[in-house]
Amino acid sequence: MNQKQLSRVILAPVISEKSTLAAEKGAAVVFRVLPEAEKDQIRRAVELMFKVEVDSVRVLNVKGKNKRTGRFIGKRSDWKKAYVKLKPGHDINFGTA
């Protein structure tokens, strides 16, 4: 993949209590990624965008919840989440990135 395609792999960082704890404990950063993205593509995209070295990548598919508005029932979309563990000495600061 070229740089333009790699820049589209990462959609957004996931900011939640669980992802903040993961960042504090194990230097892992959580991203929302394309559903068809592979671990190697995610690793290269993070290294390209943030100029850091990646130690490991873990991915999981998040199932969309069923939601109800009045009498109508709908479903949120499924999405993919990636836990990216950085090598020691590397850090991503979203305030400056």
TrEMBL record:
Annotated family: Belongs to the universal ribosomal protein uL23 family.
Protein name: Large ribosomal subunit protein uL23
GO cellular component, one term: ribosome
Keyword presence, rRNA-binding: yes
Known function: One of the early assembly proteins it binds 23S rRNA. One of the proteins that surrounds the polypeptide exit tunnel on the outside of the ribosome. Forms the main docking site for trigger factor binding to the ribosome.
PANTHER family: 60S RIBOSOMAL PROTEIN L23A
One Gene Ontology term of the molecular function aspect: rRNA binding
Origin species: Methylogaea oryzae
GO biological process: translation
Assigned keywords, A-Z: Ribonucleoprotein, Ribosomal protein, RNA-binding, rRNA-binding
Transmembrane segments annotated in the record for this chain: none
Keyword Amino-acid biosynthesis: no
Oligomer status and interactors: Part of the 50S ribosomal subunit. Contacts protein L29, and trigger factor when it is bound to the ribosome.
